[in-house]
Amino acid sequence: MLARFTQIDYDWEMAFIATAPDASGKPETLSEVRIIADPDNLVAEYSIIVCSDLKGTGLGRKLMSKMIDYRRSRGIRKLTGHVLYNNPTMFAMIGAMGFHRKLSSNNPEVFKT
Question: Is the pTM of this model over 0.70?
Fold first, then answer.
């Protein structure tokens, strides 16, 4: 699993990470966005995580915008993801970025964007 997260296959995957020095000066991960494309490189699924104390600050949106630009440059036509129904901050962000919600048929607690 560690290799999967640290050794990216750049033909199908990309990750952008926001870091800042912690109190001791060592880099600390603040946010990360990833995509993994299908074999035809037409559709990719995203995942994003932001430190709890930084949610709603615009950091996730900035990284997501960077990933959307990257996706376009690679010719990936569609970006999808799953969001828990009780995550209004994420719904607000992706809605403002033009994503559309669709109730997941597999899990009533998750929306597909």
Answer: yes
Amino acid identity for residue 92 in this structure = A
Sheet containing 78-80, strands listed edge to edge, beginning at the edge strand earlier in sequence: 13-21, 27-37, 43-50, 78-80
- CB proximity list for 38: less than 8 A, separation 6 or greater: 44
pLDDT score of 108: 61
Using CA atoms, how far apart are residues 18 and 12, in angstroms rounded to an integer? 21
Q: Confidence band (pLDDT; 50, 70, 90) for 110?
A: low
Pick the CATH number of 2-80 from 3.40.630.30, 3.30.1370.20, 3.40.50.720, 3.40.50.1820: 3.40.630.30
Is 61 buried (19+), middle (13-18) or exposed (0-12) by CB count in 10 A?
middle
Domain boundaries of the chain, sorted by first residue? 2-80, 82-113
For the cut 70, the answer to whether the pLDDT of residue 80 exceeds it is: yes
